[in-house]
Amino acid sequence: MKAKKSLGQHFLRNVSILQKIVDSLEIDENDTIVEIGPGHGELTRIILTKNPKKLIVIEKDEELAINLRQTLDNIQIISGDALDFLPKTDLPNNWKLVGNIPYYITGRLLRVVSELPSPPLQTVLLIQKEVAERISACPPKANLLSSVTSGWATAKYLFTVSRRNFHPVPKIDSAVISLRRNDLIANNKFYIVARALFKQPRKKAINNLADFLEISKSQAEKAFVSCGLSLNIRSQNLSSADILCLSSKSL
Question: N or C: which terminus of the chain carries fewer CB neighbours within 10 A?
Fold first, then answer.
């Protein structure tokens, strides 16, 4: 079965890497697992050896979904788009997410997940290496993607996966990233402030905040002082706790 370029399909065939991905998810018998983009079921079959309570796979390619129904038992197979399915589905508090994610949906997927009533307890994704590096970046190299993600999860770059392990071979290397749901009490204000702070990363954080929230410079200064932050700090040096504090003081 050929990969479809329109869906960004690149199938990982290296069994040892597939096993490392599943091991990183730390599955136990009480877990509900959601897998995105199972393809031919290589990762799915390894997940099943861990005996999770429930396994749901979401496959956008109808031909692949039909093949999975014919070859695998004891799983729920959804033929459709994960971006549509997840917001409409009632999942338990301890669910976990895993998948080989097409590069073009990574940002949208993370945003959809962040807005769920109960984001996954743990997420392990195989994604573009450059994006994995951005998501897992910490101060003083924080960026918009890492900061927005930090509103609901603690990110960790696990390992690099060479492009040679895929069929067809993509143009770039991939990486596996882990996202553990954190206890940060982020809300809409957090995400609004994070996006404002990184609108123009070369500017001082305080100027970004004032300009893009359309608040006075004195109001922005008051927020920074209240949070114990330098008025000269750049956004890439701000932690998720700093952004949370600013969101409570400036909006």
Answer: N
